Records
---
Amino acid sequence: VQLVESGGGLVQPGGSLRLSCAASGFTFSSYNMKWFRQAPGKGRELVANITCSGDITNYADSVNGRFTISRDNAKTTVYLQMNSLKPADTAVYYCQVLISVGAYWGRGTSVTVSS
């Protein structure tokens, strides 16, 4: 199982970024996917999740209405569109999949929201 995040960077408050997580090594279309984030000095927080077919999504209250999770099963990629970014969104963002009894994580992509 391999998960590779990309798309992070430095953005001004109010700006947008689109994160991608390219997955391989498992049957991507059979598994729900999640995005987490970890801000400096804080624990890892669940940001959003999406079912295997993409028909159901859920969001943390802190990002609801600003972030959108989506997936392309043909490309085995999950996305996180982030709009109206705030300094509080500064964190390393990780994608995750649960397979059997194991949780698999990517190495993360860093997002910094600052003027």
---
Amino acid sequence: EVQLVESGGGLVQAGGSLRLSCAASGFAFSSSWMYWVRQKGLGLEWLSSINADGGTTEYSRSVSGRFTISRDNAKNTLYLQMNTLKTEDTSVYYCATSPAGTKRGQGTQVTVSS
């Protein structure tokens, strides 16, 4: 059974940074593309992707240049370093096994204050 557990969210001032983590289990993490998505209204917004060995990363226009996705396959853990946070980044963040976020964890709340 796929299990994804996000952590690292919290309250931060605009311009600040947070690092999210996602502990993965129940599937072949080290051979899987992984994704970060966030809640946007009633839907999910894709933010970033990373391939199995971490050598290929992709970002949405909204976070490119500010967020960095990475992974540690030895620890079955996915990360999202978020810098220069903006109030509009306030959301629930999920790691997922697909860009649509169909299989995702419970999420971690990120709140950016002005």
